[in-house]
Fold this protein.
Amino acid sequence: MSEIRHNWTKEEILEIYNKPLMELLYEAATVHRKHHDPNTVQVSTLLSIKTGGCPEDCGYCPQAARYHTDIEGNDLMTVPHVKAQALRAKAAGSSRVCMGAAWRNVKDGPEFDQVLEMVRTINKLDMEVCCTLGMLTENQAQRLAEAGLYAYNHNLDTSEEYYKEVISTRGFEDRLQTIDNVRKTNVTVCSGGIIGMGEKIEDRAGMLVALSTLSPQPESVPINALVAVDGTPMEDEKPVEIWEMIRMVATTRIVMPQTQVRLSAGRTQMSREGQAMCFFAGANSIFAGDKLLTTPNPDVNEDMEMFKMLGLNPQKPFVKKAKPTSVEATESQYSSLGEKPKWSRPGHTIEKNELAKEQAKNAKTV
């Protein structure tokens, strides 16, 4: 039941997802206990180091420059500011800091050099460092690894089939290529997706097929519930039912037994009882802090109260993998190549994305 498989089919995953709930929960909890401490949950902090102005057209994202949202953009944070935020997160119980920049892809130059210094700085604080910076090349992945990066996040978002209904400015294959570039280093992979974007259950299964058939499977899989933001193409999507999150977490746990399953965006809409069932079903990581990049998140004190109530303990850093060594910039074996990779631009149009873009243009002229 908990054998690591890389040949899951969509039909098999759908069969698991649609099991009677009590049977599904029992199976998922059994797998979870075999591979993880059921009373330990990792607490991570997600920090937006560069907010807004993204050129992509992701239908769910308020940071896309083409949509009219209330997101306030900011330039890349300074290293001292990031260090102060990391120390604050550590004091609040986080063992990992995930830094996100609203970029389409990493570009060699001063800003990337600054991010590398952030990675070195946080790693020296004895915290796991994760980055989500968009697409990146093998050399850029090697430079991040050398700086001491623990994990790189690059979500598949949804199934390959439904992907073209969400994003038109990049291809699904770019996601897989970036993950492959990360796999050529010692950095772990964090990749998951979002449910509640109008996809079918078959698309949720399709996403899990894509993730579980990677070899090795991602060390970390975030499961996000869409937070519908006004001004985005998905502003009218209905909130995900808690039962859908529980089923998705449980199914993910069964098909990827050793993976950290991250209960990510959408927790503000979940009761403590609902979150407890997600933990029972195999979720063993949350993001703490009042924001997840730009969307609301439960207060860290509320999370600690919930942990106390449920008898959960925060996971210490570097439990799953040893702490990486940070190589100083002056001693680096890898340097900027000034690469300009041609990541794909599929070229098709998504009607609701175009409509939201036009509405944003009209709002700016009023």
